[in-house]
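GTP cyclohydrolase 1 type 2 homolog
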Amino acid sequence: MKIKEITSYLETIAPLAYQESYDNSGLIVGHPNDEVSKALISLDCTEEIVDEAIAKGCDIIISHHPIVFKGLKKFNSKNYVERTVIKAIKNNIALYAIHTNLDNVLGGVSSKIADKLELVNHAILSPKSELLKKLVVYVPRANVEDVRQALFDAGAGSIGSYDQCSYNTSGYGTFRPLEGANPAIGEMGTQERVEETKIEVIFPSQLERQIVVSMLAAHPYEEVAYHAITIDNKLQYVGSGAIGNLEVPIEASAFMAYLKEKLNLNVIRHTKFSDKKINRVAVCGGSGGFLLNEAKRSGADIFITADYKYHEFFDAEDDIIIADIGHYESEQFTQELLLEIIRKKFVNFAVLLTEIDTNPIKYYI
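Structure:
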């Protein structure tokens, strides 16, 4: 199949618009119309991973971390990033990364950790705002159904578990066609008064272009009165981290043993325990220290993440337990998640998990 068939599907689950500003998710090497027959999934993309793809006949590597974060000005093999990209290009292997956009969706990286820990009723820990817009358009009464349906078909009007949501207000509009106009209703030089409906719909901001194009195509007017504005509502299924509850609260020491077993951990760095049992659990794959206050506000008893520095552990302030399980360890199940996502959609496409442990950190036990 073509690369764009796979990547377009992945981006319906984790749209590129949801990645952080510093990120470089998406197709890094290759052309969307290139044909591919076998994919290799990994957490990181390194020279060793490219060698594995070559050995296994894979022509696309789908990794969580992008091999390129910053612009490359030269390709002279002076570091592992340049060598990896050069090797992929020479061997006609496409590179695709699905990083913070997969971090930032319900059902993504942090949700996978929550599933492994069997947390119930888990949700996004810190939902994002300014990702929703509202479109307002004025439509003659006879064309309301067509325009509204065009908006729904383009992706507008979905709120949580509901779709085809809109608010409609009746009124009338006035206009006078001037020289050069080609009015669908009315006569040149004469003011017209038309019974109209104001339609209001909410939509994810990345869909704005296709929604406006569909609306304009269905609208009868030559000049359409509409406006789109960003709204403050948080998108509850997009954001950082996850929060959920254990079925049965347990002592902190018992939970640590449970955490170590469920996530296959070598070591856990943590703050001191309290007498309180662990019931509510906050998690964030990767470097999640920025979410500590959100974890506290959510009522979490423990916050599981990675990449904590020494002085940052003091920020727990006995309000919560911080558990640093390691960056790779917190994201290791992302590979399994991607395999599940791709196989569910493309049952006849060959997808392999890497057999290479790309964790650069080793433990002497």
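Residues 109-128+238-330 form a domain with the Udp-n-acetylmuramoylalanyl-d-glutamate--2,6- Diaminopimelate Ligase; Chain: A, domain 1 fold (CATH 3.40.1390.30).
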